[in-house]
Amino acid sequence: MDRELKRRRDKPSARKVVRIPAGKKSVVLGVTGSIAAYKSAELASLLVKQGHEVFVVMTQDATEFISPLTLQTLSKNPVTTSFYDEKENWRPGHIDLADRANLLLIAPATAHVIAELAHGLAGHPLAAIALATRAPILLAPAMNGKMWQHHATQENVEKLKARGVEFIGPEEGMLACGYEGLGRLWKVNDIAFRAEFLLSRHDKLIA
Ligand SMILES: Cc1cc2nc3c(=O)[nH]c(=O)nc-3n(C[C@H](O)[C@H](O)[C@H](O)COP(=O)(O)O)c2cc1C
After folding, report:
1. Least CB-packed of 122, 141, 154, 192 within 10 Å?
2. Residue 181 within a domain
3. Which domain holds residue 47?
4. Which residues line ligand 1 at a C-beta cut-off of 6 Å?
């Protein structure tokens, strides 16, 4: 080996990235009332396969698009759909989830939930968790292209980005509403990959 390289490698102060094994992390997976809600089933499955505890929290509208039973089975945990599901212990379940989350991922995220988060509303467990958690938040929007491009939505997105909320997508393509454009949910595999990155980001130490 080149002597200079060897000297640098053996130097005690040499900086290197030490990766601490990610281990089991808690992901709160928020699902909202978009036609893309069925894709959250695959996402829940992928996150479980990635070795994480997945807690699904659905809006009431989301339950019109996919059954809580499907997501409960795939996530292997109870699904929260209402504040009044929370009867297990003295501590409100949404606060418990907010505290235990290592990541809050909302996929798909409707225009409505994006607006609620931007305005700090807390009318249902998912919005309340977004306010109460200090975990990173990743939103994967899905909606009609005109809804996405509307100033109101874009202002809400900018507001959230300024607070550190991350976005993945939407992508361009054929939309369920019959239009073609920007508004499709990003590929589920890529969302899971991005989630993994955010989960492991805090585990990296520069030694
Ligand atoms: C068939 C159908 C598909 C919908 N798809 C979307 C969508 O992809 N994105 C969106 O923002 N809203 C969509 N909506 C409207 C939302 O369901 C509606 O704004 C709802 O209030 C969202 O509530 P939530 O954000 O609390 O889940 C759709 C509505 C219907 C009936």
Report:
1. 154
2. yes
3. 24-206
4. 32-36, 59, 61-62, 110-113, 142-143, 147
CATH code at position 64: 3.40.50.1950
pLDDT of amino acid 139: 98
Tell me the two tokens of residue 95.
């606060």
What are the 10-residue block averages of pLDDT along the chain, 207 residues in total? 51 39 82 97 97 97 98 97 79 92 98 98 98 98 96 98 98 81 94 96 51
* Order of strands across the sheet that contains 53-58: 53-58, 26-31, 103-109, 137-141, 166-167
DSSP class of residue 72 equals H
| Residue 145 identity | G
How many domains does one find in the chain?
Answer: 1
pTM exceeds 0.85: yes
Say if residue 183 is exposed, middle or buried (CB neighbours under 10 Å; 0-12, 13-18, 19+): buried
